[in-house]
Protein 1
Amino acid sequence: MRIKLLGWTEIVALLLLSCGFIVPMFTRSVLVYSVLNQAFVGVIAAESVWIMLRMNLLSFATPAFMAIGGYTVAIAGQYDITDAFLMTAAAFLVPALVAVPLGALVLRLRGTYFVLVTFVLSQIMQLLIFETPGLTGGSNGISGVAPVTLFGAEMGTNRLVLEYACGLAMGATLITGVLTRYFRQHFAAIEENEILAESLGLVVWRYKALGFVVAAGVAGLAGYSLVNMLLTAHPSSFDSATAVDFIAYTIIGGRLSILGPVLGTGALVYATNLFGTHGQYAQGLYGVLILVVVLAARGGIVGTIAALWRRVS
Amino acid sequence: MLLRIQDLWVRYGGITALSGISIDVPEGETVLLVGANGAGKSSTINAIIGLVPVSKGRMLFEGTDLTQIPCERRARLGIGYSPEGRRVFPTMSVTDNVLSGAFGLGRKRQTEALDWLRSVFPLLVDREKQPAGQLSGGQQQIVALARAMASFPKLLLMDEPFLGLAPVWIKQISDAILQLRARGTTVLMTEQMARPALKLATSGYVMRGGEVRRSGPVDAIRDLALADEYL
Amino acid sequence: MDQFIQAAIIGVSLGAQYALLALGFTLIFGILGVVNFSHGGFYMLGGYVAYSCVAFLGLPYPLAVLVAVVATGALGWVFELFLLERLVDDHLATLMLTLGLYLVVSTGLLTVFGPLSMEFAFPVTGALHMGPIYVPRENLIVLVVCLAAIAALWLVLFRTDLGRGLRALADDRAVAMAQGLRPKLLFPLAFAIATGLAGLTGALVTPILSLSPNVGDPVLATSFLTVILGGLGSLEGAALAAFVVGIVEAFSSVYFGGSIGALVLFVLVLLLLVFRPTGLMGRPVRGA
């Protein structure tokens, strides 16, 4: 049996994201750049959540792995290591490696434990950053991170930073897409009925752990993108409360396809910016939308569009 | 007729567990459903108490169609239920298990029920504080029976009361059932072990593959029931 | 030595607070199978209701605490009955519903009261001096009220018909329903009891710690640590683990300072999950 590595949803998602290369041709608005940058970071983080949601697991650990990826890059920058390829690999691999023992441990247990442990993990990561000022700069963070270099050339301008963030988001989408396509049946079996899947000989926790490790790596890329945008690694960037934002992006966007996290992030980052300086109120909107999605529109934005489309055609 | 089941169908997923059975349980009698594993005995009991949905048919309990009543309200109509595998509440004490069968009936009726059940089953006094999950299988069956009887039901449903029990306990449980029946309780029970069950029953139904094969007074079904026992 | 005893007293007092939170959380999980992410929200709400009663209505503090318990219990009851109950068997959906409620509650509090901490002081001040040992009176009062609430919860659960019904539903929902126990009646009550306890803890503790719209998250994290340590769904385990957590936290803050205590606890929980996945007093975990 031939396994398709990418489906049309992934291709649409990649096309949508590629607007990061097109928009700078038309505008230099700082606001547009900032919103797009935030959206690209958010998309990567939401995809990390989405991978686990494919197996009915809700992860609150995204900020923790983002922090690991982000600080890895920031610390490497202090040693003048700024090569884009090297840093991308490091931002993916270091969090992924940290996730291996953790995943093997927690994912043998029922999903509830996973949710609780990931929530606590994000809180703990904040404390760890504050408790290790020698490595992470503690509450001051690491500022003045050197811009990334591509083939030796510095990617310093706003436009280059945006394009780099766009590239990272597309890369993360590619990784997420290939993983969830390749293991589509395994993930679907686990989502459908874990006990049945297990009784049919699927070693469920291994696939969950694999998903968790890749999700951690993807989150690391989000952290990298965030640090590269701000040129600072600061504990507040990885606040545990942001885990809820990424979950909201994914659920509200729709958990059925990868278009969910992409569209959900786009819509909610845009909506949050409408709040202007009162961004803290956006979480209330997320809360209401989550309630609406769960009670009335289980497919989220993507599922609702798909349902409307089917009714029309 | 206390319970009259007419053309009852139960399907789960793609599997048909019951294909149009009809069963009558007259007041005061002990009716036995016998048959091998998968014959549809437990499905019948579960349909009556409401743990599986009925796809077609009627179940008239004192003239009320049970299919129109949600599971949690059927007990109040006067149906007691002792499940397959006993399923006592494992973390709760023996006394609490029994009393949970009389939930919301008021302290007076609860005390009355507890006193009576304790007089019938001394075990309930000896082990009153012990978590029911720690008891042996036979002891748990006594607790499950007492729990089912705590509301003084008109109809007692017993799903495989002898399952996995040693002969000594089968004898004890049989005696217990006889004592409960002496109160005038109507019983509908299922059992794979036909021999001890036939001693208790007044009439019975032999089931195979989700259908009733033969029905009638105990003597009329005995040979077929015993033949099935060795399948 | 004095320092040791003082730390022990603070630890027990913290443990009693955590026990109230964790008991409510584990009660909801054990009976409904729901992971309640809004637990920290009810804690905050309890604090703000009590604060409002004192600051705006001029009610005496004990009455304000009572109002907070009733208000949080009532909101929990309504939320369970009208929203949660529809999807109560879907673990992921209920988790997201409670998360949504938490976001709405915390944003609502932020909108009404603003992001800054409230000036909400405990009405009793001063300290008890027993020789060289010094215990703040407010801590003692909180300890006594918490222990009384735990005792009351115990009486309800283990000495009343309602408690029997709730425990039966936790042990085996299908058989409990077949015995005539009605989840539609009992689930909202269980949820209300648990959220009322969270509200009580908030009303009691926020005047001592702090009251702002972001105190819910750490409370939730502590509850999680506690129930994992005690074994999900186990009441005795939650109570025991709460005191372990409280004492570890108190001692580490006295002897090491900072947040080492939380790190130690997290490592402890991970180790526990390796060697004893069901927690200190756990029983087999229910699905998903």
Protein 2
Amino acid sequence: MKEKFNIIKSTGIPLPNENVDTDQIIPARFLKATTREGFGENLFRDWRYDDNNQPVVDFVLNNPTYNGRILVAGKNFGCGSSREHAAWALYDYGFRVVVSSFFADIFKNNALNNRLLPVVVSDEFLQTILKGISTNPNTPIIVDFENQTIAFKGKEETFEINPYKKSCMINGYDDIDYLLSLTEDIKQFELQQS
Amino acid sequence: MSRTLFDKIWDSHIVKKKEGYPDPLFIDRHFIHEVTSPQAFDGLKKRGIGVFNTERTTATADHNVPTKDQHLPIKEALSRHQVEALRKNCKDFGVTLYDLGHPFQGIVHIIGPELGLTLPGMTIVCGDSHTSTHGAFGSIAFGIGTSEVEQVLATQCILQYKPKRMKIEINGPLSKGVLAKDIILYIISKISSSGATGYFVEYAGDTIENLSMEARMTICNMSIEMGARGGLIAPDEVTFDYIKGKKFAPQGAELHKKIEQWKTLKSDEDATFDKVLVFDATDIGPMITYGTNPGMGIKITDRIPTPEELKDISEQPSFIKSLNYMGLEPGSQLMGKHIDYVFIGSCTNARIEDLRLVASIVKGKKKAEGVEVWVVPGSKQVEEQARKEGLDKIFEAAGFELRSPGCSACLGMNEDKIPPGKYCISTSNRNFEGRQGPKSRTFLASPLSAAAAAITGRVTDVRELITN
């Protein structure tokens, strides 16, 4: 049974860098597996570990001050390659939500297809959260999936989520289930096309 | 109501509209490769279903393959396993595979067009963001994730919301030494690596119309580098001439009939776009990137900006981090900068015209000492053609290494990697940190600029090497 999405209350991990591309999230040389599991181990590999495979102390995932299931990232998160492994890696590591002011299109789709929730906030609110968790890493972020709100230190914003995707996530079904229900229509369509 | 080309193709592929649901879009052509397909096939196995229509899917091995000794088993166990998984899946599910050693093998976005599998008016997807390449034929082509690959294998459809439409118009003649790669690097440098996120782009204008098919593919290929889902160009005589005689393209009377249909594939004159950008081609010079995203590009003769010159000062920390990674000083010139590697390859620039351009610069010359130069053709067919034209001899005499087809050093996945700290001038599409190998440093440029750097060992304005 897939984890149910409702209210996620967690501390956040700040990654203020802009334009974090999927090659950083999971470098290509770690895309050789033929299953979906285990990619968390190499999440942000080249930022997390040095040439001798030792943890880079000033990278945020290696900083014991920060932990949680919410990643708070700079704008244009997930740009570049379409590798779904990026979403798998973030989920496998333990993230359930990524907050940013702007996401790349393919990443956003991939995240939603893997129950990793991309939450778009205003630039201003993003800066508030980034600053807030840097000063006090224990401040929780509350993401209410049902009501589409994100709250931090008494401030709140609503976020968009496509109604179809929302119902998929709540009911635990996916795009293929819907498309398979259209099989006869698809066959007809293909016949008419040729 | 008047519509754009994008609208026309999109609307004609919707199987069944349902209020509140994304559009189920019928996919005419699906390409797969070893990296993003195994989990999709696993999904089919778990559901106990087969491939909806095997004739619409074509597979090749490209990302994770060596470019030397391709006749031998792949040395690295995980890479070998992944390619073997592709073979097994294609066999079990009845999908055509152009495997290593097959005369049609090559980079997925190079073989589709050259085999005539990519045609105007189609919807085309592949688990690779550079699928946008195929848009050069006037098709809707975009990259997808593995869950979506599974959708297409299972149902020949994909659920999508319609993106917004952008038109990018470029007019005017191109200056000496300026190629399609420079055009697209110029546009991305103007609008940034996220400037077209949420949009599907149509490229238009006389500059685009005067480009060859292969040059158009280079432009559409890098649409994703400005965030666009894809980019397309209305088909014309150049497109139809390219398609004629291609292995799997319609032939004879059928082709003539098709061409008449394809001629209608264009945006209506009064069609409205959500955004229109216009550029003047005469302002474009040879381009090069200095940073770690493709939007960080300059004319090769310009200096790198300083953090103070950025339009958005909030981007300063990322900008400084990027220059530190690259080992470059703000405000400095790239011209004359020493380079260690030259990579001529990738789905952006590894077609026969690219190799011919490189050869035109290096003929009778030798590479600079200490520089390693890899020329990796995009496909077996490109490699054969290059040998037929004697380009291999020119490369050999120059000290370049002509390898076998694959994605090679574009993505630091296979054996071909740029070592840590080394500078590579590359005809590929991404300069992200570590893209060409851990700690590698990438300068993106055109095949002409890469060839010029190979000869001098430095970042060079190719116009200085062009005599006529």
Protein 3
Amino acid sequence: MIISGGGTGGHIFPAIAIANALRSIDPEIEILFVGAEGRMEMEKVLAAGYKIEGLNITGFQRSFKLSNLAFPFRVIASLMKAGRIISGFKPQVAIGVGGYASGPLLYMATRKGVPGLIQEQNSYPGITNKLLASRVKKICVAYDNMDKFFPASKSFLPAILFVKR
Amino acid sequence: MIKIEGKKTDAAAFFGLKTDIPTLLVVGGSQGARSINHAIAGSLDAIHKAGVQLIWQCGKPFHEQAQKAVAALSSDRIKVYDFITRMDYAYAIADVILSRAGASTVSELCIIGKPAILVPLPTAAEDHQTKNCQSLVEKNAAILIKDQDAMTSLVPEALRLLNSAEARQTLSNNISKLALRDSAKVIAEQVLSLIKN
């Protein structure tokens, strides 16, 4: 398994919870996290006892900034590194929890035929997840009106604890 | 996802309340909360005398009646709204939350991890609100009051909780655990199903 993404606690803690849940179902599962260099996931994931690799990726500033000039180069470099990580680790599934790193990682994983799953816990999806929606096999959402954004056939609801029976 | 961390001071300013007084939040919903509204309206005096703060979302149909009842008390610790636009603030300042038990509300309560008293709407399809509640009550993660008992039990139970930091802590710990654990497991199972395919 590869789990990618991060940026804020809102992405990282669910990611660690998913990893723990996978381990509790099957303790033999190998899990590698992929985060963004310099972001808080790099230490939080290690603290939780998992391995993590970093991509040199940042967000695109939505206003004009000089730093945006480097953005395309970072994306290409990140895609290449993501590709190398996938070729080396050979995951059976790639999971994206939102945040910068999940973009290049899930893009490359799905390109290489690795089934992908993304998690969107907000009621309005982030740009990364919107771009990935058509490439992945499953999308898990927290609200039941998300078919506005994602194909209903792929979506399932994990964060709603109780379903009407 | 609703975020309440660090918002208590802003919340107090927003509602015109204080941060250091126990606060009860009552969320009636837009229409289906008659029993909750009547229970609150009938016990405003007791709530005022208990020295706690109240934020009361009563819904549009009951708003005029609720405003009159509150005005008669002239208490600056009781705030009534037909609709609360900043639920994050309301959750942030609340010490106890009193609400119906719809799925979205319940999952929100799990995420914010605050002690809750739930009054399932008995007319909900197949009584699913009661089922939502029972899953929580079994884990001592919330308190259930039946709709027909609201008038007599709701406010006394709320005041008891506001007075017991220990009871609040227990409920709060237990309801917090429900939020992530179950959804993480569901996601993990979906992940594994992708391997088999």
